[in-house]
Task: structure prediction
Amino acid sequence: MRHAAFAPAWTQPHHMRSRHLQLNQLQRRQSSFLTPLFSSPKEEVDPGVVDGTDLRVAKYPAPSLRAANAAIAEEELKDGSIAKLAKEMFLVMYAAEGVGLAAPQVGVNKRLMVYNDTGDRTKWLKETVLVNPRIVEFSEAKDVEAEGCLSFPDMNGDVERSKWIKVEALSLKGKKIKKRYKGWEARIFQHEYDHLDGVVYIDRLTEEGRSEVQPRLDELIEEFGEGGSL
Result:
């Protein structure tokens, strides 16, 4: 996920659009919970090769974005492989100027997401890793914000999300997590959680919103070539 306030392609929940947020539409409607990332917008970047990992951002219509994602087993938590994956996902996320990332976005079809709602790698205490997360309750109250996505560079669109959600997940140590998210964090979570179900933010656009980004989608499809999953 990226900051919509500065991402030309997709911003994040409430302000994220699956790639990393960009200004564009968000700057026009800054809400009270906008982070400094929005008020001081940065351009999202395609990180390409990132030091410390072989992971790369999967761009639409990469098949991993639509594939089923397997639950993470206890053995995988114990052997350290998931902790290693999460660490490398953060490297990619920060390199791309993002605030959230789901495993299928780096070609790994596992139910794992990472995020740092500040997008600031120096604020590592804000880093959150969620294993096998699920939404157990969500508000009927909704709001609409521009979102962008790292997997959809140079585009964004308005997405409706629940204002708050209750979540259950596991930590990297296998401990149960129960938490209520609201505002910006709720939007980030919902955006990344969609990825774990093979859903991408363009699926939630209005007919008008979809038509606005279709030319860019057509470019991405052409750039990817054969074998994509629309």
Residues 5-41 have pLDDT under 50 and may be disordered. Residues 207-224 form the longest helix (18 residues).
